[in-house]
Design goal:
The protein is an alpha/beta fold and 382 residues long. It has helices at residues 45-56, 131-140, 155-158, 204-207, 322-325, 341-345, 350-360, 362-366, and strands at 24-30, 33-39, 63-67, 70-71, 88-93, 142-144, 166-168, 189-191, 215-217, 238-240, 261-263, 284-286, 307-309, 331-333. It is built from 8 helices and 14 strands.
Length: 382
């Protein structure tokens, strides 16, 4: 539990005695940049680290703060550590102890994406219309256009109409998913991974009319949010939106009661809506590499859940009923979180979960030389 010592902004300047508790501003030197922070001199070093976590992506236990050649002690206050206004404190990060995509560096960039040839500014020509190809698409129901250097979806795709069952446009430079996508009324699987799609360039109104859509994959695009209309994709069984810039999930996700796989790893999500507990068909959930500090208690409602991936988040605990109610859970990835083994042992149902985990890996265990009976999915020993 982190101790908060920052002064209330409304009390700023009212400190004890002769104003000795007025807030001070210090500079944190990290990875070639300077991070200014204003807080009370009576704040603890632990509290300072908690403020730095979302600014640097370095977990509190992975931070080492150095001032005048000395490592600052967590339990001490800034005042006791002789850190005064204008002080410059160095932050050193332990490798691996981070959340999200890792430490925010001075020249941090978004997830690397395919770049166009700098010498070719002209739009690449569309794949030429091929009547034989169109007939093949209609006959098979599979429209395969992955890695075709497309910047727009060819009109012939819409000509497939209700014949199309699968559309794969992954690994192109497509920006717009227009309203015409609604004419693919029988589409079941839609793959749009690794393109240039933004919140405004995809017609969600058209997508929600696709009543047979079971798989929607939008990994590695430029999405920052998902609309409430997502909840109208009532047949959806798999939703993949990893490697975007999402900061949250809509509460309407709870309407997806057929959803079995949810993968939203490598985003900037800081909170999960409680309605996630209504997605009672979920089997696998991947929330790794986000900015989560807690999960809603409603995770205990996911009775069919078998795999939960939570690595690289700032989590300090788990929903209290997770092990007790999720009796199918056998995979739990906690690498690079604040959750310890001692904490896990306190949860009701931990022993049963551990037995399931070992049983699942029994075949691998039979061929391993090392002792794999220990919980090795990210929780520290203490």
């Amino acid at each position: 539990m982190e101790e908060g010592g920052a002064a209330d902004p409304n009390e700023k300047g009212k400190g004890k005695g002769k104003g000795e508790s007025k807030d001070i501003t210090i500079s944190i030197k990290f990875s070639g940049r300077s991070i200014p922070l204003t807080l009370s001199p009576d704040s603890t070093i632990t509290h300072l680290k908690s403020l730095l976590q979302p600014l640097t992506n370095v977990l509190t236990r992975g931070q080492k703060l150095i001032f005048k050649g000395k490592v600052l002690v967590d339990t001490m206050t800034l005042r006791a550590s002789e850190v005064t206004g204008g002080a410059k404190v160095m932050l050193m990060a332990s490798q691996g102890l981070h959340q999200g995509d890792g430490p925010i560096l001075k020249q941090a960039q978004s997830v690397p994406r395919r770049v166009e040839n700098a010498n070719n500014k002209l739009e690449k020509p569309q794949v030429p219309v091929d009547k034989n190809r169109l007939e093949r698409w209609k006959a098979t129901g599979v429209v395969a256009l992955s890695q075709c250097n497309l910047k727009a979806i060819p009109d012939e795709v819409w000509a497939c109409g209700p014949s199309a069952r699968v559309l794969d446009l992954s690994n192109n430079s497509v920006q717009d998913v227009p309203a015409q996508v609604g004419c693919l009324s029988s589409i079941q699987k839609l793959f749009l991974n690794a393109n240039s799609i933004t919140d405004e360039s995809i017609s969600w109104e058209a997508l929600k009319s696709l009543k047979y859509l079971t798989v929607l994959s939008l990994n590695q695009n430029h999405l920052t949010s998902l609309p409430s209309s997502l909840g109208e994709l009532i047949s959806l069984r798999q939703l993949h939106v990893a490697n975007n810039s999402l900061t949250s999930l809509p509460i309407e996700i709870g309407l997806l009661t057929q959803l079995e796989v949810l993968k939203v790893n490598n985003n900037r999500i800081s909170i999960i809506p409680a309605r996630i507990g209504d997605c009672n068909s979920l089997i696998e959930v991947d929330l790794s590499s986000n900015l989560l500090s807690e999960l809603p208690e409603t995770f205990g409602n996911l009775h069919d859940l078998k795999a939960l991936h939570l690595s690289n988040n700032g989590l300090k605990s788990l929903p209290s009923t997770l092990f007790k109610m999720c009796l199918q859970l056998s995979t739990l990835d906690l690498h690079n979180t604040e959750i310890t083994m001692d904490l896990l042992r306190q949860f009701e149902g931990w022993e049963s979960f551990d037995e399931r985990r070992l049983l699942k890996h029994q075949k691998q265990l039979d061929f391993r030389v090392v002792n794999s009976a220990k919980f090795d999915e990210g929780a520290d020993k203490n």
